[in-house]
Structures are given as C-alpha cells and as structure tokens.
Hints:
The complex is a heterodimer.
Chain A: E1 3-5, E2 9-11, E3 19-21, H1 47-56, E4 58-61, E5 67-68, E6 76-77, H2 90-124, H3 141-147, H4 157-173, H5 183-212, E7 227-230, E8 240-245, H6 250-261, E9 268-273, H7 275-283, E10 288-291, H8 296-302, E11 307-310, H9 319-325, E12 330-332, E13 342-343, H10 349-358, E14 363-365, H11 372-387, H12 396-405, H13 411-415, H14 422-430, H15 435-443, H16 449-453, H17 460-473, E15 477-480, H18 488-500, E16 506-509, H19 520-531, E17 535-539, H20 540-545, H21 557-560, E18 570-574, H22 580-593, H23 602-612, E19 615-619, H24 625-636, E20 641-643, E21 652-655, E22 665-668, E23 673-676, E24 683-687, H25 691-700, H26 709-727, H27 749-760, E25 763-765, E26 770-773, E27 785-786
Helix pairs in contact in A: 1-5, 2-4, 2-5, 2-24, 4-5, 5-24, 6-11, 10-11, 12-14, 12-17, 14-15, 15-17, 18-22, 22-23, 25-26
Chain B: E1 19-20, H1 23-31, E2 36-40, H2 48-59, E3 64-66, H3 71-77, E4 83-85, H4 88-95, E5 111-115, H5 119-132, E6 139-142, E7 153-154, H6 163-176
Parallel strand pairs in B: 1-7, 2-3, 2-5, 3-4, 5-6, 6-7
Amino acid sequence: MEELKKGGxxxxxxxxxxxxxxxxxxxxxxEWEPMGPHPMPRIATxxxxxxxxxxxxxxxxxxxxxxxxLCTYGKCDLTGNKKGACGIRMDAQQxxxxxxxxxxxxxxxxxxxRHLLHDMIKxxxxxxxxxxxxxxxxxxxxxxxxxxxxxxxxxxxxxVFSYVEEQIVQLADALHTGQEGSYMDFESKALHMGxxxxxxxxxxxIIQIACYGMPSGFPGDGPDVPFVDVGIGTIDxxxxxxxxxGHNVPPSADIGVYLTENDxxxxxxxxxxCCTSIDTTRVYKKAKIVSALGxxxxxxRAGIADVVVIDEQCIRAxxxxxxxxxxxxxxxxxxxxxxxxxxxxxxxxxxxxxxxVSGKVPGVIILEPDQVGEVAVRTALQMxxxxxxxxxxxxxxxxxxxVNDCILCGGCTLACPNGxxxxxxxxxxxxxxxxxxxDLFDICVGCGRCEQxxxxxxxxxxxxxxxxxxxxxEEKGRMRIGRGPIWDSEIRExxxxxxxxxxxxxxxxxxxxxxxxxxxxxxxxxxxxxxxxYIVTLTGCMAIDCALWKDxxxxxxxxxxxxxxxxxxxxxxxxxVSNAHIHDAAIKVASIFAGRPLRGNYEEIADxxxxxxxxxxxxxxxxxxxxxxxxxxFNRLGVPAVVGPHGAKYRRAFMSRPDIKEDWxxxxxxxxxxxxxxxxxxxxxxxxxxxxxxxxxxxxxCFRPSDTDRGRSIKLTHYIDLNQKYLSAYPPDWHLxxxxxxxxxxxxxxxxxxxxxxxQDWKIDWKKKKIEEGPIRGYNPSFNPTNLERxxxxxx
Amino acid sequence: xxxxxPFDVATIAGPEAGDVAPPEVIGSxxxxxxxxxxxxxxxxxxxxFFIEIAIEIGKKGIPIAATGHSMRGFVEKGYTENxxxxxxxxxxxxxxxxxxxxxxxxxxxxxxxFYGIIYxxxxxxxxxxxxxATDPLMRTVSIDRYYHPNARMSFTNVMPRMEEExxxxxxxxxxxxxx
Lengths: 796, 179
C-alpha cells in the first residue's frame, strides 16, 4: 500500500488498475461521556415515553376532511369514526395525516440540512471544525442527546443525516395502506418524526454557523450581536434591489460576498423575506429584512425587487408569475424549487445576465451557490436602470375606480382565510374614508384568494396596499440578528431560577405568519412576557413580525429589552432551523444546571424538562407542515405549545384532563412514592381563539410540579394578573396550583386565602395564615418528580 | 332555506353536511335538548347586542361556556351567574367524553350551541363533535352569521349589509327557545 487518498481510497503499488475503497473510516471516539440507554433511537425505542405522554395528553382530533382518498378502495367516508375499506378508522386516519404532515416538515429540514452539508463540504471540506468559542462548550445538545455523537467537524454530520434519513423512510413506510392501524402508534411515530426534525434543525444551523462564522460563543456574539433593519420602509429603492426568499442561505451569502469583494455594498440593497433574510443578516451585515412570510405576495407586487433570488421552502408557488408581472428577473437556486425554468448552472455569467436583462427569459436556475452572486448583482444593477420609471403602486385614480367598482357581493369574504369584510372597507374608501381598508392590510395574510373570485376583477391586494402605502413607507423596525446558541454561562446563571420558578418561564414565539388578527399580536405576546421577566426566545417569522411595532418611546421590542438569556430578555435566536437552540437551552438546563447525563439519554432529559423547565412555545400564525413537525418535536421533549385559531386546522391537539386524577400521578424519584400533582403543564398542544386568551394560557402552561413556593407565587401572580387584564376575571382553575399559603403572592395572600375558603371550601387557619385542607398536595421542597420508574433512587 | 355554501367556501368536509334553518326551527331544536350548553366566543364582543342575546339565552337556564376572551363581555354586563370561562379546544375535548362531569358537575351535555366564535375554529370543533361525540349523540347548532356544514343545523351566511336582519333572526331565536 503506497498511498492513502481522501475518502478512504488507496492504491497498491504493484497491482496496477486495482483500487480498494474501504468506505467510511470511523475513528475511535474519545470517551467524553458514558453512552446512555437510547442512542440513535428507532421507531419503537422511545415508544414507552410517547405513550406516557399520550395517555395523559390524549390525542384530540378535529378532521378537516371526513374522507380518505389515498387508495383506490376509496373514497371512503369515515364520518362518525367509521372504518374505511382498508379497516382504518377516522381517528387513526387523522393520526396518519398528522404523521404525513410531520414527515413533510421533517423532510424539509432534513433535505435543507443535507443540501447545506453537501455545499459546505464542497466549499470548506469535511474537516471544517465546529468551534463555537469559549462560551459554548456543549455545542450540539440534541446531537449528543439523540445520536450520542459529539460532533467535531461538519463531516461528522454525515452520520447524523444518514440516521435521520433512514428513520424518515421507515416512518414514511408506516403511512402506506395496510400498515399502522392505531392512532396512538401513529402519534408515537409523529413524535419520533418531530424529534428527528429538531435534530435536523440543529444540524443545519451548526453547519452554517461553523462554515460562515455566524454568531455563536465568541466575544461580541450572544447577547451582544448587532441590530439590523426590518420592514419594507427600510429598503432604499434608489439603489438596485435584490430580494432573496426562502431558507437556505448559501446563494444569498454568495451575493453578500460578491457585493463586498466588488465594493458594491453602497450601490445594491440586499433584502430578504422569511428565514433566508434572517440568516443572510448573520453572514452579511448590510443585509436587511424586508418582511416575514405573510407579506411575500405584497412585497413582490410592490415591484421593489430588481432581481428575485429564491432558494427553498415557504416560497409562493406563483413566484415566477409575480416576478414577470413586475419585470423582476428570477433566479432559482435549489433543485427543490425550479419553477419550470432552464438550468443554466455553469453557463457563462455574461450570457445569463444578458438573457435576464433583455427579458429573453423570465428567470434561470443556477444550482451552484457560488455562481449566484455575480449573476444576481450584475443583473440587478442593469435592471435597476431599466425598471426605474416603472410604477407598481396604483395611482389615486385607479384606486378610486376600483373601490367604486365593488358591488359588495361578498365573494372575497367567503374566499378569505380570515373572513375579512373587504367589501365594507371598499365601500368606506369609496365614500372617502380609506382607514378601514388600510387597517385590513396588516390583518390580511397575503394569500390573494380574494382576487380570484372577484366578479369585477378588482386587484384587491393592490387596492389594500395602496390604502396602506403611507404607513408602509414608514415601516422601519429594528431587531438583533440571530444569535444562535444560548451560552453555557447563561444557562449556569438562569438554570436555577428557571427550575425553581423565580424566572417564571421561557416563552418561545416561533413560526409562520398566518395570524388571525395581524402582526401586532406577535409584538403584544413578546412585550407582555418580557415585561414580566420571562425569557422570550424568538425564531422565524414571529421574530420578524414583532420587530415592526414600536412603543411610545419609538423603540422596537428588541431595542427596549436586553438580548441575554435571562429575565426580561428578548432574543432573536435566528431562522427556523435555529429554533433547535431553544430545545438546546432546555436540554442544557438539565445537563449543566442539574448534571443529568446527555449522551443517548433522550427519555430522561425529556422527563426532566416536562416536570421542571417552565417553557412554552407559541406558534401564533402556524401554517406549514414544518410548523407541525417543529411543535411535535417540542412536545416529545416535554415542552408545550400554544397555536392560534388557524392551528386547529392541524387536526390534532394534545390536551390533558385535569379532572381525571389518575392522569396526574407522578413518582417522587427520591423514594419511589406516588404523588398526585396539579396539572402542570396542562396541555402539550392547544389552540386559543384570540391573543387575549393565549396570554394567560401561556402563563398557565409554565407551571411545573417542581416549582418552589416562591417560584409558584410568581407564576400565580402572572397567571391571575393576565386573566384579570385580558379576561376581566380570575382564572377558574387557579386554586389547582396552590399547595401551601406561601404559594400565594404576598401582596394578595389574604384576599386569595379568603377566596379559597369561600369559593372552594378550603379550611384556612387564619391565625397562622395556613391552609389546613383543600389542595391536591402539599409543598415538599425535596420532591423529585419523574414519570420514569427506572429513575427511582431508593424504594420506600 | 335552501342549499348554502360554507362561509369559508372550501369547508366541505364530506357526505354529511348540516342543514340551513331559520331561527324558529333552531330555537325549537334547542328546546328539545335535555342538557344544552351555549359556547360563546370573542366575536360576540363586537356589539353589545350580541352579548345581550347570550345573556338572554343564559337566563333561559342554559349554562354558558365563555371561550376566547368573551368572559370580558359578561363581566362588564354584570352577568356571571351561570357563565364559566373555558378554552374552546379544551371544552370540546371534554364534550367528546360521555363521562365528563360538565361545568356544574352534573354530567355532560347533549346539545351545544356555538355562537360568536371565529368561523374556522368553530368549524374544527364542530367537526370533532360530529365525528367523535356520537355515542350518545351530541347535537350541535351554530347561531352565527355563517353557514356551518359541520353543525347539524345552522343559520345561513349573512352579509354585512344584512346585519339588522341577523339581529332580528337572533331575537326570533331567543323568543322560540322554551326556558
């Protein structure tokens, strides 16, 4: 043997034309922690844990469709929980559809991560180190937890994705007719898919952080990351404008590199929509965030883009048509979204630019990220001159004509996901008052269904945009760029107060913009909890949308609060894939603060988080299949989530029954005794009708059995106060969370004791100010709650 | 009143779609219930008239589950006697269980009136009850300004210009419910 080449290939000197490929070389891993019981779990490995969750939080189904049409036996009518021809009942069919949604979501993140890994290995090599600086030693908590791997280089993620890909295929197999028949097992599989999805997200973000030097654990990162402009009004249309849309950052990063290397940063605006925009600002500091997903149609219709660059996920299916309408050439950069264009990868950039600028082609495909920057920038510079005289906002006369043309047929309202009464607003505008129409702009989710049914062919989206244009021009927000991982030192500081309850919880607004009542709700959620000293960790579209609003001092919520993982912090974690760092923060609380072993130890860590870490996700505008798998991943790890009313259309929720005592039996791991506890957290996935209802619900879902009396009193204060503020009443179940008098807020203790005596018939010793009889249980500071018998330290 | 399209046009679930009915018929249907429940949502807060209608129904002995943030309307009106806050998702989760003890501890209900709830959210909850609260059968109606195919009976779609007509329908409905 003479020569060992890269990739395990070597040649033998005396044997010409013989090549032996030994495949993957697995180096012996350093013994960094003993392996736990469940490395790389398969479908059935964590089923017992899932069933513990599913027996308490029983799957609730609200079908969107009462039929099954997946095979040629059907269509089958399953109404009333009937069985289809294959034998599947409606409940199992709903579980099947939920698994399918999670499969799609998980595959999107896995495909994204794998694609990124290919591109990054090609550009930087497999040995690109994962070094997140002095503040982040546990670099990949989910990877360690699920896979038992401590990744040192990006190449280590090959094994992680291979594991996920195999599991995805096995889970997809279970969807076939004649496979799974139990809704409980479909849900266990969905939970498995959700966990894999969280792993995908962590992998994708770690790879891009490592390769692009995005913020992590170095000085200047973390709480100290810089701010970035947000909003349509921040885009300088006197420059050439490139708009990037999607989630996979390499092509956008290449645009930033090209602009920097060619000294064009002051001549071209690079702005983005959705998560690509967040990630672009993590690599190119002059990039701007134009909007979240909900305004994609309207930003494209406004015609501000001289070039549109798409990568993958959350791109409108009619994006090319929209670009053609405004004469904006489009560049597709990912094989998952090619929109019928011609692949021009490796073609001469001069020719591509000429074809785009001349209008010979409406767009091109360029699949090599490093070829995108030059074409996009040169095209934008030329198109800027060509398009400068074009106007896409309606003139005053056009606006007047259209609002007067409305016949109030109501067709648009029936087509609108939010049932907006557009005709009435048109009527007001025709009479001279455009405010109702302008006010609809923010509530509109930007789908465009209304225009397709308008009998008078009114361009309703454009009419609404025109009405709101004066405000839109001034839409200039600010947010911190995505900071990625929470620092280990922050976990050391915040871990104890979180578990003890003195920091009342982590609120995690995440996901899409399918809000029931506009973006201001996103801002209100963040403001309300940050001002109450919860830690607010945001990702994706909600992170963007809440930055559009300002307080009375003219500050956005990010400017008004610090960016650290501590009480009152408002943290932009980053894009969709970055929200794995929210899982990671909870995992690190268990690991760093409580010293629980991580490696291959998912069940124990999830059990710890469910009982002790008061965290609650909120996907107020959840829309996509990714949001389904993200929420399901949070749920398996023991983190509940609240969704907006549109979230009821996910068909499935996980809610408990506080009135069924046996569902709330935990084990005290210190002595093995059974303890009946209060319902904390009461639900794992629940929809609220309005933001006013969601705010107290989120506070409720932060109760945990491990709360100290001081922590419980703080949580109760907020739960009761939020109910009084938004529902004008005490919550009907607040007494369930009272164990002893010291659980009650000091300022209102007497009032609350009296209410317990009068309304719940509890016995109070007024001399000692003690509760003598009534609560579900007393307060035991050494209570060590668990759902897992194997964690009992010694039997009584 | 003839065939109607769902308020959100694509809400066509399958072969079983509820009937559009006038207020007198729905009122009579409600009167046939042994243990009816009124589930009220936050859209009720858009006009005092609608809160008063809920209170009128409550005064006929039908308990009220105030969902969303509709509780606020009842508190402001000083009517809380048989009004209980409940999240609609959680409420529906209980309603599908025949063994649930109800808001007053006296057992589950046999009839739910949906009122003032965001269309698509109500539609999903009605779908749950239609498909899974079948033994014993949970009867449902909607008295909102929308046609709800997942309810067994509902009003027709009411366009904004017909708001006064809708108010008259609600008045007629209240009159026809036997207390």
